[in-house]
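Sequence and structure are no longer studied apart. As an example, we show below a sequence and the C-alpha coordinates encoding its fold:
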Amino acid sequence: MDLEHYADQLRQQFLLAAEAHGDEALGVAERLVALLDSAVQVAMLGLLSEAADELTRDLAPDTVELRLRGMAPSFAVTRTESGREQGGGPVFGVPDGGLPAEAVAEDSTPARINFRPPEHLKVRVEEAAQREGLSVNAWLVRVTAAALSEQSGQSERGAVMSNRLRGWVR
Protein backbone atom coordinates (compact mmCIF):
# COMPACT_ATOMS: atom_id res chain seq x y z
CA MET A 1 0.00 0.00 0.00
CA ASP A 2 1.46 3.35 -1.03
CA LEU A 3 1.13 5.93 1.74
CA GLU A 4 3.31 8.44 -0.08
CA HIS A 5 0.34 9.56 -2.17
CA TYR A 6 -1.56 10.56 0.99
CA ALA A 7 1.49 12.24 2.51
CA ASP A 8 1.93 14.23 -0.72
CA GLN A 9 -1.68 15.38 -0.59
CA LEU A 10 -1.23 16.52 3.01
CA ARG A 11 2.00 18.37 2.10
CA GLN A 12 0.35 20.11 -0.86
CA GLN A 13 -2.65 21.23 1.19
CA PHE A 14 -0.41 22.50 3.98
CA LEU A 15 1.79 24.46 1.57
CA LEU A 16 -1.23 25.82 -0.27
CA ALA A 17 -2.70 27.09 3.00
CA ALA A 18 0.64 28.68 3.96
CA GLU A 19 1.02 30.30 0.53
CA ALA A 20 -2.16 32.28 1.16
CA HIS A 21 -0.35 34.02 4.06
CA GLY A 22 2.64 35.22 2.05
CA ASP A 23 6.19 34.23 1.19
CA GLU A 24 7.43 34.24 4.76
CA ALA A 25 4.71 31.83 5.89
CA LEU A 26 5.42 29.63 2.86
CA GLY A 27 9.11 29.47 3.78
CA VAL A 28 8.28 28.42 7.34
CA ALA A 29 5.77 25.86 6.06
CA GLU A 30 8.34 24.32 3.70
CA ARG A 31 10.76 23.86 6.60
CA LEU A 32 8.02 22.39 8.79
CA VAL A 33 6.89 19.96 6.09
CA ALA A 34 10.38 18.48 5.94
CA LEU A 35 10.34 17.99 9.72
CA LEU A 36 6.84 16.53 9.80
CA ASP A 37 7.35 13.85 7.14
CA SER A 38 8.32 11.10 9.57
CA ALA A 39 5.61 12.12 12.06
CA VAL A 40 2.97 11.87 9.32
CA GLN A 41 4.25 8.41 8.33
CA VAL A 42 4.13 7.22 11.96
CA ALA A 43 0.60 8.62 12.40
CA MET A 44 -0.61 6.83 9.25
CA LEU A 45 0.97 3.57 10.39
CA GLY A 46 -0.75 4.00 13.76
CA LEU A 47 -4.08 4.47 11.99
CA LEU A 48 -3.55 1.35 9.89
CA SER A 49 -2.54 -0.62 12.98
CA GLU A 50 -5.75 0.39 14.75
CA ALA A 51 -7.73 -0.59 11.65
CA ALA A 52 -6.07 -4.03 11.70
CA ASP A 53 -6.96 -4.42 15.40
CA GLU A 54 -10.59 -3.49 14.75
CA LEU A 55 -10.81 -5.90 11.82
CA THR A 56 -9.31 -8.66 13.97
CA ARG A 57 -11.99 -8.10 16.62
CA ASP A 58 -14.72 -8.30 13.95
CA LEU A 59 -13.24 -11.38 12.26
CA ALA A 60 -12.29 -13.33 15.40
CA PRO A 61 -10.82 -15.96 15.57
CA ASP A 62 -9.23 -14.98 12.25
CA THR A 63 -6.63 -12.22 12.49
CA VAL A 64 -5.51 -9.21 10.49
CA GLU A 65 -1.95 -7.96 10.90
CA LEU A 66 -0.21 -4.87 9.64
CA ARG A 67 3.14 -5.77 8.09
CA LEU A 68 5.91 -3.46 6.94
CA ARG A 69 8.42 -3.97 4.17
CA GLY A 70 10.61 -0.94 4.42
CA MET A 71 8.00 1.77 4.85
CA ALA A 72 5.38 0.02 2.69
CA PRO A 73 2.56 -1.34 4.87
CA SER A 74 0.28 -4.20 3.92
CA PHE A 75 -2.44 -6.19 5.63
CA ALA A 76 -2.08 -9.94 6.16
CA VAL A 77 -5.19 -11.97 6.97
CA THR A 78 -4.70 -15.27 8.78
CA ARG A 79 -7.68 -17.60 8.50
CA THR A 80 -7.94 -20.29 11.15
CA GLU A 81 -9.64 -23.62 10.61
CA SER A 82 -11.90 -22.98 13.58
CA GLY A 83 -12.79 -19.59 12.09
CA ARG A 84 -13.91 -21.21 8.86
CA GLU A 85 -15.72 -24.05 10.59
CA GLN A 86 -17.16 -22.30 13.61
CA GLY A 87 -17.33 -18.63 12.83
CA GLY A 88 -15.28 -17.61 15.86
CA GLY A 89 -15.51 -17.42 19.62
CA PRO A 90 -18.35 -17.95 22.05
CA VAL A 91 -21.88 -17.29 20.88
CA PHE A 92 -24.96 -16.88 23.04
CA GLY A 93 -26.96 -20.10 22.89
CA VAL A 94 -24.13 -22.15 21.36
CA PRO A 95 -21.89 -23.85 23.95
CA ASP A 96 -18.56 -23.75 22.12
CA GLY A 97 -19.26 -20.78 19.86
CA GLY A 98 -19.57 -23.03 16.83
CA LEU A 99 -21.73 -22.08 13.90
CA PRO A 100 -22.59 -24.16 10.88
CA ALA A 101 -20.12 -23.64 8.06
CA GLU A 102 -22.90 -22.38 5.81
CA ALA A 103 -23.59 -19.50 8.21
CA VAL A 104 -20.11 -18.09 7.70
CA ALA A 105 -19.42 -19.20 4.15
CA GLU A 106 -16.41 -17.47 2.66
CA ASP A 107 -18.19 -16.62 -0.58
CA SER A 108 -21.23 -15.06 1.09
CA THR A 109 -21.93 -11.43 0.30
CA PRO A 110 -22.78 -9.15 3.24
CA ALA A 111 -26.24 -7.61 3.17
CA ARG A 112 -27.60 -4.59 5.01
CA ILE A 113 -30.50 -4.54 7.41
CA ASN A 114 -31.86 -1.68 9.49
CA PHE A 115 -32.26 -2.85 13.10
CA ARG A 116 -33.81 -0.48 15.65
CA PRO A 117 -34.17 -2.16 19.04
CA PRO A 118 -35.57 -0.38 22.10
CA GLU A 119 -32.86 1.45 24.07
CA HIS A 120 -32.81 -1.09 26.94
CA LEU A 121 -32.23 -3.94 24.48
CA LYS A 122 -29.60 -1.98 22.54
CA VAL A 123 -27.64 -1.48 25.76
CA ARG A 124 -27.75 -5.21 26.52
CA VAL A 125 -26.64 -6.10 22.97
CA GLU A 126 -23.70 -3.68 23.21
CA GLU A 127 -22.67 -5.11 26.58
CA ALA A 128 -22.83 -8.69 25.30
CA ALA A 129 -20.79 -7.82 22.22
CA GLN A 130 -18.21 -6.03 24.33
CA ARG A 131 -17.90 -9.01 26.71
CA GLU A 132 -17.04 -11.22 23.74
CA GLY A 133 -14.68 -8.66 22.22
CA LEU A 134 -16.78 -8.24 19.08
CA SER A 135 -18.41 -5.38 17.27
CA VAL A 136 -22.17 -5.19 17.68
CA ASN A 137 -22.59 -6.18 14.04
CA ALA A 138 -20.38 -9.27 14.32
CA TRP A 139 -22.14 -10.31 17.53
CA LEU A 140 -25.59 -9.90 15.96
CA VAL A 141 -24.57 -12.00 12.94
CA ARG A 142 -23.33 -14.82 15.18
CA VAL A 143 -26.35 -14.81 17.47
CA THR A 144 -28.80 -14.62 14.57
CA ALA A 145 -27.11 -17.48 12.71
CA ALA A 146 -27.06 -19.61 15.86
CA ALA A 147 -30.73 -18.91 16.62
CA LEU A 148 -31.84 -19.67 13.07
CA SER A 149 -29.73 -22.82 13.00
CA GLU A 150 -31.36 -24.10 16.20
CA GLN A 151 -34.81 -23.05 15.03
CA SER A 152 -34.61 -24.82 11.68
CA GLY A 153 -33.22 -28.03 13.16
CA GLN A 154 -30.40 -27.76 10.68
CA SER A 155 -28.35 -30.56 12.19
CA GLU A 156 -31.22 -33.02 11.71
CA ARG A 157 -32.29 -32.01 8.21
CA GLY A 158 -29.00 -30.84 6.74
CA ALA A 159 -30.57 -27.58 5.53
CA VAL A 160 -28.33 -24.94 4.05
CA MET A 161 -28.47 -21.40 5.44
CA SER A 162 -28.17 -18.43 3.13
CA ASN A 163 -27.62 -14.81 4.01
CA ARG A 164 -28.81 -13.48 0.66
CA LEU A 165 -32.14 -11.82 0.29
CA ARG A 166 -33.66 -10.76 -3.00
CA GLY A 167 -36.50 -8.38 -3.61
CA TRP A 168 -37.56 -4.82 -2.95
CA VAL A 169 -37.69 -2.98 0.34
CA ARG A 170 -39.52 0.24 1.03
